[in-house]
Amino acid sequence: MATIAPDLTPSTKTNGNNSSDVLKLGRPFRYIVLTLVGLFFIVPIVSSARFSFLGNHNSFTISAYTQLFGTAQFWSTLFLSVKVGVGTVFLTLALLIPTVVWVHVRLPKLRRVFEAISLLPLVVPSVVVTLGVITSFRGLPNIIYGTPVILSLEYVVLALPFSYRALDSSVQSIDLKTLVEAGQSLGAGWIKLLRFVLLPNIRGGIIGASILTFAFCLGEFAVASLLSFTTFPVFLVQVGQLAASQAVALSLIALLFTWIPLAVITLVFSQRRASRSTIVADE
Amino acid sequence: MISSETVANGGRYSRSGLPVRFENVARNFKDVAALKSFNLSADAGELIVLLGPSGCGKTTALRVLAGLEMPDSGRVIIGDHDVTSLPSAKRNIGMVFQSYSLFPNMTAKENVEFGLRVRGQSPKDRSSRSGELLELVGLKSQSDRYPHQLSGGQQQRVALARALAVQPEVLVLDEPLSALDAKVRSSLRDEIRRIQLELGITTFFVTHDQEEALAIADRIAVMHQGQLEQLDTPLAVYTNPATEFVAEFVGTVNRLPGRIVDASQVEVENVGLVEYKSDSTFTAGSEVEVLVRPESIGIRGANDEGCRVLAKSFLGSTIKITLLDRADRLISVAIPTSDAGLVEGVEAVSLYSRGQALLVKGR
Ligand SMILES: Nc1ncnc2c1ncn2[C@@H]1O[C@H](COP(=O)(O)OP(=O)(O)OP(=O)(O)O)[C@@H](O)[C@H]1O
Ligand SMILES: [Mg+2]
Hints:
Helix content of chain A: over 70%
Largest sheet of chain A: none
Strand content of chain A: under 5%
Oligomer: heterodimer
Radius of gyration of chain B: 24 Å
Number of strands of chain B: 19
Mean pLDDT of chain B: 88
Low-confidence stretches of chain A: 1-19, 276-283
Low-confidence stretches of chain B: 1-14
Number of helices of chain A: 14
Bound molecules: adenosine-5'-triphosphate, magnesium ion
């Protein structure tokens, strides 16, 4: 699972003291840390990649990949995971954006409480959450129950610690209450406020929350397997029990699937910021 | 007083202001009464400054007027409409906040156009209107900047233009200048006043700064503990305060012991005979406390038996002198700089009265 997502939420809290302490330790220390961390992440990836291209008698082969791409199940499970992921992202945003906004504007005192609630899925074992969700939705029609929709519902809850934090911190970084009141005094209702003021200003948080949630969905194994859905990670484990090099190839593909969109979005965002700030310079 | 008639600028921005009335407004936050039976009437086109100590309910009063806070009881009337139950978005009140409140995702121009966009105006109309307003606040050349590319003063100018763009019936400014440095502050203050006069819009302005209040207000509303203490012209509030609180809060006062001589004169210790006006009648000889402004006391000259000179501070056109009388009471005196010679190298002085007492109260 790709959890090394870059922090897309605008960082406003500059921890002056801490960072300057670190700076004092000097450049060599920084490079050593950076190298160690880099090795820690890169070595496993490079060696997996090498392993996935290894044929009989140490020859180079791409057969692991071609075989995978030729499997119908590869495509169907990938499609299922993407579908569940997209659904989860939409449900999460529809649920959390109004909640976070409301908490900030109307119930600022309850902010900590909501934050604590959002962290519960980290404390409560996921099996318990899974059963809880299933029990809660037992009465629902078959469209939800027994279809991948139930999986999305599970994931909305399980990804809450990531999605809520991303949104909450981006809302925290703007003076939401004043902006809302300014908008209202100019005649804007909630829909227009949401569209013209809120969403554009918490875009970073929305993207961050979406990516984290999507990555979570693409990597989650236990719950999917428990509910007998053959999602991409479940397929990966099944393959791994039969053909090791294919499993490794598969996990590299999964990695790419989450990393490429991440990189693209990060790049687009940093360029946008840069182009905005250049206007200051030409004064 | 400013009339509500259409004024300069070919009537391009101008419109008649509307009178505004708070009637018995009350607003409680848990156990705090932010406003209690608050009454205030502003004439059309008038600039009212709300002045008062922190927590006296100034912001709450403005928020109630703007519809951002609902009163527990009482009514708010604009023109001849009772707007008490109207939500903010329907009130058409321009608001400038203390904290920077521009939408960070929009340029100065887009910010100014926001209210018009919400009202569904065409981009062409919006653009010409925002052009006019940015010109009015002197920021035409910065139209395409984002808020973070503007200084604090510029941001507040844009906020003003944004509030005015929708042709509000009332303009409400809550300490719009308090985050700015002194110089920008006084120039922007004058500019706000100029624009307000030009548009003839009824305006409420909150400030902590007395000088600011005295400088721009048509009338000052002094508030105390959620109520209106006095509503009057700056001169009247300063020279003729209605209550002790107002006398103390606006400007500086000395509280000196005295004894009533007759219905118009009181003998004040160290100062001598001082004229006064009072609603309550005191019998001759009764002991009173007399409130006197520093500039109403003059220095007659050196006198070793008189009050000792503790400190002098030069304030430009006046010199403020702190004296200590023989009973160790502090007296503050302000004399014109041209009289500086009177206290040069002098250790103790005698005083005289140069003006009326503000208030006389029984002891
Ligand atoms: N949302 C709120 N919740 C609880 N108490 C509040 C709230 N808003 C204001 N108060 C209280 O109401 C009283 C009046 O507040 P208000 O903000 O109107 O004062 P103010 O005159 O604007 O003060 P300042 O000059 O410091 O801005 C204060 O005691 C304040 O603590
Ligand atoms: Mg206030």
